[in-house]
Design brief:
Blueprint: E1 29-36, E2 50-57
Antiparallel strand pairs: 1-2
């Protein structure tokens, strides 16, 4: 991107309409979000460690894709 810019942790945001029954009714939708982990000398000394949190969407609802952290 440019000198001094590092983007090893980034997200791609997609807007889609999902047909959950496209190949049967045994499907699920899983939302994954990356969340920063606090700096720690042993586990995250450079502050670039992220954890991925997963949530299965069990019913129709609004999912906000804007950043929370």
């Amino acid at each position: 991107v440019g000198p001094g810019v590092l983007a090893q942790n980034h997200q791609h945001i997609f807007a889609v309409r999902i047909d959950p029954a496209i190949d049967g009714f045994g499907n699920s939708v899983l939302v994954e979000e990356s969340h920063p982990v606090k700096m720690n000398p042993q586990t995250n000394p450079l502050g670039n460690y992220y954890e991925v949190r997963q949530e299965i969407v069990r019913k129709s609802k609004w999912i906000d894709a804007s950043g929370k952290d």
